[in-house]
Structure formats: structure tokens, C-alpha cells
Design goal:
Elements: E1 6-7, E2 22-26, H1 27-31, E3 36-43, E4 46-53, E5 56-60, E6 63-67, E7 71-75, E8 80-85, E9 90-96, H2 106-116, E10 120-122, H3 125-144, H4 149-165, H5 180-196, H6 203-209, H7 214-225, H8 229-247, H9 252-258, H10 264-275, H11 279-286
Parallel strand pairs: 1-3
Antiparallel strand pairs: 2-9, 3-8, 4-7, 4-9, 5-6, 5-8, 7-10
Helix pairs in contact: 2-4, 3-4, 5-7, 8-11
């Protein structure tokens, strides 16, 4: 079965080998005066795109965003996207893997999970200047590579994530605010779904993995997004199916098998029920 194209971080400095992979570039150096067009693909690393000034279209897991000034995009490993950027866009492109950066405390880990749960955020100019300053600092450290440059970059990433997490659409105060515990457990479930959906589709199994009862897990998803855990499982299955339908030429039976369905007819009925289209019709419509 053909896989979705996966891009990797090029190792540009030998001393990064034992510290994970990391790269940061100015967009002007990436674009080189020409429009950037990336076809649908996925990464095995975190991808941060900070647009100080620019135009384009960025589609992440089939949600389309117009690129504007003062915009931040964050992709988690495994997400699919395709990107068009205008030649005169300015900002930074930062890439790193799980081995390079890990939160060092429960509080910073919570901020990290909160930040990386958001693919897109448009921020006001003052906030954006603060965010871009952390990336600018990382770029300088990466360029000059003075003693201690790797810890300095990691510290800047942590500050960036803390500030970005503050841009969360989740209200921080008021009666309608979602408790931090609920938000954290919900985000934990999303990561479990991303990692295990092709093998595990049972609410009971996800509850067990999260050390919660089924009732507790459903209460968390209801409070967070107004959906049951089963709804979220179905959405993740459909998302993975869409990824393979549009990014590969695999036969429907092969995609069904990849998702854990031995009965292709059942998978087709399930896909139609969830989307209103057969897998083949969905592929033709959006290809």
C-alpha cells in the first residue's frame, strides 16, 4: 500500500545528532523570490510557520486557512497539509522533532499540549511581535552556534509556546471556562486517537488508556466540544481515511484494510454515513 509522502528534517549540523533534529529558516531564504507550492504531504516532526507579512493558502487536515499578516501555524507530527505562499512573504519556518524539545515540568507540558492542539492562530500585532522575537532569537542562536546555543533555542521555544498558549480560544475566566484538568484530559485523548486509531476504535479501550471510566471520558468530551467519545473516534477514522484518499492513489479496499476494516463494504457504508459521500466520490470531488 502506498503511503502519504513524509518529509523529514535535514541534518545540517553534526552536533545535533545526539540532541534530535532542529531547523529554523527565514522565509525569504526559503522562497528565494518565488511562490512556494507544497503538495499534500505529512511530516514526522513539529512544524511552526510564523507569517509576519504575506499571503497564501494553508490547508491542514482538510481545513483551509487564508494566510494573513501576524499568523501562526503549528502542525503536529502526522498531520497532512499543503501550502501556497506568495513570493514576498516574510517570517520564519521552524522544524524540530520529539527528541529535540520536551517540556521539562508538568506546567510547561500543559502549556505545550495546549499550544500544539491549535493549528492556526491570528494574533494582534503587539502579541505577534513578542512571539516573533522568540523565533528571531532562536534564528540568531542557530546561525552563530555559540557555546550553549541548543539550550538557548529550547528556552526560546518554551517561551514561544507559553505565549502562544495564551492565545487559546478557551476562556481563561468566567463561568463558561473549561477547567484546566478537563482541557488537559481532552487534549490527551486527541493524542491517543491520533496515535492509535488504525488499531483501536473502542471507547472502553481509550478510557482504559486514559485511566478513566467511560462515563468520565464522555463527560470530558461533552464539556470540551459537546461530543461523545464515540463521535471523536468516528471523526478521527474519517480524517485518516480522507488523508489517504487524497494523498495517495490506493484502492479503497487497501485504505479500508489500513484503517482496520476487513469488510470493505462496511467501511464504504460507514464513510458515506459520516460524510454523505462514498470514498470514491469524495476522492473525485476533491482531487
Amino acid at each position: 500500500m502506498k503511503s502519504i509522502p513524509v518529509r523529514h528534517i535535514a541534518q545540517t549540523h553534526q552536533d545535533q545528532h545526539d540532541h534530535g533534529r532542529f531547523s529554523i529558516r527565514e522565509l525569504s531564504a526559503v522562497l528565494k523570490g518565488e511562490d512556494l507550492v507544497h503538495d499534500l504531504h505529512r511530516h514526522d516532526f513539529y512544524f511552526i510557520l510564523a507569517i509576519e507579512q504575506g499571503q497564501g493558502v494553508h490547508e491542514i487536515d482538510f481545513i483551509k486557512y487564508d494566510v494573513h499578516d501576524n499568523a501562526i501555524f503549528i502542525l503536529r507530527p502526522g498531520q497532512v497539509h499543503h501550502l501556497w505562499l506568495a513570493a514576498n512573504s516574510r517570517g520564519y519556518l521552524l522544524e524540530f522533532d520529539n527528541s529535540f524539545y520536551k517540556a521539562h515540568s508538568p506546567s510547561t507540558e500543559a502549556q505545550w499540549k495546549r499550544a500544539t492542539s491549535q493549528n492556526y492562530r491570528q494574533v494582534d500585532q503587539i502579541r505577534f511581535k513578542k512571539l516573533i522575537s522568540y523565533l528571531s532569537s532562536s534564528f540568531c542562536e542557530y546561525t552563530f552556534r555559540e557555546d550553549g546555543y541548543l539550550p538557548a533555542i529550547k528556552a526560546s521555544i518554551e517561551l514561544f509556546m507559553i505565549e502562544f498558549a495564551r492565545q487559546s480560544p478557551t476562556p481563561a475566566k468566567g463561568a463558561s471556562a473549561i477547567p484546566t484538568y478537563t482541557q488537559e484530559r481532552y487534549e490527551e485523548l486527541l493524542r491517543l486517537l491520533e496515535s492509535n486509531i488504525t488499531q483501536i476504535k473502542s471507547v472502553a479501550e481509550y478510557a482504559k488508556m486514559a485511566n478513566l471510566s467511560i462515563y468520565q471520558l464522555n463527560a470530558i468530551t461533552k464539556a470540551s466540544v459537546g461530543k461523545t467519545t464515540a463521535d471523536l473516534i468516528n471523526e478521527q477514522i474519517i480524517l485518516e481515511a480522507k488523508r489517504f484518499l487524497l494523498a495517495t492513489s490506493n484502492q479503497i479496499k487497501d485504505i479500508a484494510w489500513h484503517l482496520g476494516y476487513e469488510d470493505t463494504s462496511y467501511f464504504i457504508r460507514f464513510f458515506r454515513k459520516q460524510t454523505g459521500y462514498s470514498p470514491e466520490a469524495f476522492r473525485k470531488q476533491l482531487s
